[in-house]
Write a structure and sequence with these properties.
The chain is mainly beta. It contains one helix and ten strands; from the N terminus they run H-E-E-E-E-E-E-E-E-E-E. Strands 1, 2, 3, 4, 5, 6, 7, 8, 9 and 10 form a ten-stranded mixed β-sheet that branches. Strand 1 and strand 2 form a beta hairpin. The chain binds copper (II) ion. The site of copper (II) ion has 5 residues, from strand 8.
Length: 158
């Protein structure tokens, strides 16, 4: 009798746990990038949220529109702001990673085709624990400074 009761209890627990598993471990908000010419570089920005209870790390990214994709940050080098590759971007639970101009970004190097304002491009993010997450990145004007803006003027060099 005792054994049978344990089996039933375990089955019930599995059903209760199911809705929690339905939530994606990683949530990406407002991914965007700047328009750029074929053969040049662009960068993707977004806010990455970790909905699990444990630290995860974005370790790489790929996109069919760029021959090389790197994770970058900006650092002060004396009085000059320079960007440099980082091996991973940490995403702590309850502490979203904000990728934005002048900070962390995903560098799209050697574009296989032009990125045009108004289109979306696929970008696959690979996380240490959550695995692959593909997002559609909205391409903004070359001078845009945020996800919903249509900037213009001088090309922002980063
Ligand atoms: Cu960069």
């Amino acid at each position: 009798m005792t054994t049978r009761r344990i089996v039933i209890a375990a089955g019930f627990a599995a059903i209760v746990a199911a809705p929690a598993n339905a939530q994606a471990p990683i949530s990406v908000q407002e991914p965007w990038a700047r328009a750029a010419l074929q053969g040049r570089t662009s960068a993707a920005y977004m806010t990455i949220e970790n909905t699990t209870a444990a630290l995860d790390r974005l370790v790489s990214a790929t996109s069919p529109v760029a021959r090389v994709v790197e994770l970058h940050t900006h650092m002060m080098d004396g009085a000059v702001m320079r960007m440099r590759p980082v091996s991973a971007i940490e995403v702590n639970p309850g502490e979203p990673a904000v990728l934005r101009p002048g900070g962390l970004h995903i560098m799209l190097i050697d574009l296989a085709r032009p990125l045009r304002a108004g289109e979306t491009i696929p970008l696959t993010l690979r996380f240490e624990k959550a695995g692959e997450v593909t997002v559609n990145v909205a391409v903004q004007a070359a001078g845009a400074s945020g996800p919903g803006q249509h900037g213009h003027g001088t090309q922002h060099r980063h």
